[in-house]
Design brief:
The chain has five domains: 100 residues, 3-Layer(aba) Sandwich (Rossmann fold); 70 residues, Dna Ligase, domain 1 (2-Layer Sandwich); 242 residues, ATP-grasp fold, B domain (D-amino Acid Aminotransferase, Chain A, domain 1, 2-Layer Sandwich); 118 residues, Glycoprotein, Type 4 Pilin; 68 residues, RNA polymerase II/Efflux pump adaptor protein, barrel-sandwich hybrid domain (OB fold (Dihydrolipoamide Acetyltransferase, E2P)), CATH 2.40.50.100. An eight-stranded antiparallel β-barrel has the order 26-27-28-29-30-31-32-33. The protein has a five-stranded parallel β-sheet with strand order 3-2-1-4-5, sandwiched between helices. A four-stranded antiparallel β-sheet has the order 6-9-7-8. The protein is of the alpha+beta class.
Length: 661
């Protein structure tokens, strides 16, 4: 076993690897960018080295800098995690040349599977079933269009060097192919430095099922069963579970055998994932092989009781597989959800900011949290917006779903947008609970998963009012120079009568005006009901409203905004002064603003063009994803405020736009 390894990654996977190494007595070396100087993985590692500026191309993707750190620190091996350099053939080769063990497959296996087109040809020869499609070298747009027309729509355009849902477009009709191809190639160039694509038949209501495989240097290969990753948005996985719902013993064996055949065909060693797409009839087809550990590996660990990172370390050190195929257990059901800093109601637009509150549910043998952040950390625009993975285990799928819903109800995040409530709606939805999942579920069930906001419970208004009063009292600190000063007291005392206040509160479009009376004993009377509040650590507040007892949490966002958590929901409560915002309803600005920091990667219309409402005007790239900025109404594009390739800050006006009268 190694005595010291370098982790060439960041975030939750770096923290995960550090935890296993610590248990095994292996020392860890972290690398970090200037933006990650205070990151959790930096704090947890035995030592940490800076490798460059925030941009990943100048830090986490600099194999020369990372190898220099490995040499200088005395690391014997490099664990690449996933993303960044994990499937980089050149980096694996450079590690070998430097005499440093690359904890991953041989260079030849990475090369064989690095191109989706070449991999499919190899799998075809190995007898692994393939989806009908075009995987050729001729990348002329007209040739690609002809092949798409031949295959028949809908088709999927996919970056040949891609992964993680990037560089993928579904095309429903021939007229849309050219624009979708251009967009896909731009994203592929940006994410992978290679704009080569393949075109495949897009299966209607397919399931995404992948097989975890492991192989050692002695020629042994095993399958650690399947994961169902069908619940996706933008072709990126949102929920993963193991085993797959409705999977028969026979089909599991067939898919496991095909995955092991795929691994043997390339002389595989280490952890790998063979991804399949399956139709409603039970047919399955090879999509790709990821030559690394996957984000969703914890569900496999939960049902098998194995530590896959430990398996990786031992195999890389030359040890045989810890278990034979017959010895690998399969027990219960596990579900993983990815907690993202994003706004599901705005097309899953990533969110940036400071984690004013980050309180996951308590960890137990059945509830696991893998996270690369802690309360107080910043979520920057430079990297993927995943905050954590929440994994639960149950004796069966129904119990696992119930455990997940309970855990999500306990997760409290403030300071950035997040998808916690969306995930709870998805896990609790009838289609998901019944196991009727496929890759189109989220988009197809939009009305179910994005319902109108429910009425705000009266207890939320009462807690918000109590929290505002409590915050005022806390700010009224008694000055040491005059401990008896009446100006430092905010208890509502009046010499002749009772203080009454009218608090104007808003949650979205809902407004509430509360009459708050201060009682002599320090309690409040809100809209005629006596309210006793008890404040605990961490922003927890217990309320006795008449005879009703409720509990919630609150965070003061500043600028008269409170985040209130109650009953598994988060409410953004604004303390509104009607006079403060008078006259703000007028539309003074005709331009469009950047929803977050990013780079202009495409200008889609000419200045002076007239466009209809909803027409795409430009494309921004932010947090590794493309975002189209569209016309808010019919009108004329007078000019663009930024040139192609320029970086833009959040809130910057992007387009001088003149609406039609």
């Amino acid at each position: 076993m190694f005595t010291k390894i370098l982790i060439a990654n960041r975030g939750e996977i770096a923290c995960r690897i550090i935890a296993t190494c610590r248990r095994l007595g292996v020392r860890t070396v972290a690398v970090y960018s200037q933006a990650d100087a205070r990151a959790r993985h930096v704090r947890l590692a035995d030592e940490a080295w800076c490798v460059g500026p925030a941009a990943s191309a100048e830090s986490y993707l600099r194999s020369d800098k990372i190898l220099q750190v490995a040499r200088d620190s005395g690391a014997q091996a490099v664990h690449p995690g996933y993303g960044f350099l994990s499937e980089n053939e050149g980096f694996a080769q450079a590690c070998a040349a430097a005499g440093i063990v690359f904890i991953g497959p041989p260079v030849a296996a990475i090369r064989a599977m690095g191109s989706k087109s070449a991999a499919k040809a190899l799998m075809d020869r190995a007898g692994v079933p393939l989806v009908p499609g075009y995987h050729g070298e001729d990348q002329d747009p007209q040739r690609l269009q002809e092949q798409a027309d031949r295959i028949g729509y809908p088709v999927l355009i996919k970056a040949s060097a891609g992964g993680g849902g990037k560089g993928m477009r579904v095309v429903e009709r021939s007229a849309d192919f050219a624009a979708s191809l251009a967009s896909c190639q731009r994203e592929a160039r940006s994410s992978f430095g290679d704009d080569k694509v393949l075109v495949e038949k897009y299966l209607v209501r397919p399931r995404h099922i992948e097989i975890q495989v492991f192989a050692d240097t002695q020629g042994n290969t095993v399958s650690l069963y399947e994961r169902d990753c069908s619940a996706q948005r933008r072709h990126q996985k949102v929920v993963e579970e193991a085993p797959a719902p409705g999977m028969s013993v026979e089909r599991r064996a067939a898919m496991g055998q095909a995955a092991c055949d795929a691994a043997r065909a390339v002389g595989y060693v280490g952890a790998g994932t063979v991804e399949f797409i399956a139709d409603a009839s039970g047919n399955f087809f090879f999509m790709e092989m990821n030559t690394r550990l996957q984000v969703e590996h914890p569900v496999t660990e939960m049902i098998t009781g194995q530590d896959l990172v430990e398996w990786q370390l031992r195999i890389a050190a030359g040890a045989p597989l810890p278990l034979t195929q017959e010895q690998i257990p399969l027990r219960g059901h596990a579900i993983e959800v990815r907690i993202y800093a994003e706004d599901p109601d705005k097309g899953f637009l990533p969110s940036i900011g400071t984690l004013q509150r980050f309180v996951p549910p308590p960890a137990t043998p059945q509830v696991r949290i893998d996270s690369g952040v802690e309360q107080g950390d910043a979520v920057s625009p430079h990297y993927d917006p995943m905050l954590a993975k929440l994994i639960v285990w149950g004796e069966n799928r129904d119990l696992a779903c119930e455990s997940m819903l309970q855990a999500l109800a306990q997760f409290r995040i403030a300071g950035v947008g997040n998808n916690v409530e969306f995930l709870a709606r998805l896990i609790g939805s009838p289609p998901f609970r019944s196991g009727a999942i496929d890759t189109g579920l989220i988009e197809r069930e939009r009305d179910l998963l994005f319902p109108p906001p429910p009425p705000v419970p009266s207890a939320v208004w009462a807690l918000a009012a109590s929290a505002l009063v409590d915050a005022e009292r806390a700010r009224a600190a008694v000055p040491a120079s005059d401990p008896h000063s009446p100006w430092a007291v905010a208890d509502g005392w009046r010499g002749n009568g009772t203080l009454h206040r009218r608090l104007h509160l808003q949650v979205g479009d809902a407004e509430q005006v509360l009459d708050v009376a201060y009682a002599a004993d320090g309690t409040l009377n809100i809209d005629g009901a006596p309210v006793q509040a008890r404040v605990h650590a961490g922003g927890q507040m217990e309320l006795l409203i008449g005879a009703e007892r409720v509990t919630g949490w609150w965070v003061d966002d500043g600028n008269a905004v409170l985040q209130v958590f109650m009953g598994g929901h988060r409410y953004t409560v604004v303390h509104a002064d009607p006079l403060l915002h008078a006259g703000e309803g007028d539309e003074s600005a005709a331009g469009l603003q950047a929803p977050m920091p990013g780079k202009i990667i495409a200008l889609l219309v000419e200045p002076g063009s007239r466009v209809e409402k909803g027409a795409p005007l430009l494309v921004m790239e932010a947090m590794k994803m493309e975002h189209s900025i569209c016309a808010p109404a019919a009108g004329t594009v007078n000019s663009f405020c930024f040139a192609l390739g320029e970086q833009v800050p959040e809130g910057a006006e992007l387009v001088e736009f003149e609406r039609e009268a």
